[in-house]
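Technical note accompanying the year-one report. For the benefit of new consortium partners, we illustrate the data format agreed upon in the data management plan: each record pairs a sequence with a structure-token string. No post-processing was applied to the example shown here.
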Amino acid sequence: MVQFIVLEEEKGCIQGWIGGQRYDLEVSREESSKREILRREGIGWDTLKKILRHPEPPGYRLKEPRPKPRIGPYLERIAQIIEEDKVLPKKQRHTAKRIYDRIREMGYEGGYTQVKEAVRELIRVKQEVFMPLIHRPGEAQVDFGYALVKVSGVLRGGRDSNMEF
């Protein structure tokens, strides 16, 4: 696998690192052709195309996700535990360690790190996104919704309207 890092790009000249050696590639049509650069530098067409196409190295990309033979059967249960925890107060929610202990009881034989990474990814993917509201002078926003309210120790649902200037 060929690795390269593009350092600078000025006036049709690309300076980069390929396989640990530095190359100055003159791409300008007036100075030298691509074929001449390939012969002089000893690199292949695909490598030159990659350097010219990407201003920064593209990095390694997986074509398909890696299989997870040990934790795969337990991912649904982990997602279920995380979903159930959303209604609980923050201090009472499961940690990755506690989830690891629970699925060990179910027969999981993998390591804690796999569970920790799976929990982190599931939380990251399902995380709520908040956008700041900006109101220009003279504009207002009205929101209607449904809210849960604790009245006399009983959780009740009620309609809600909110107006912001």
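Partners are asked to follow this layout when depositing records. The longest strand covers residues 141-151.
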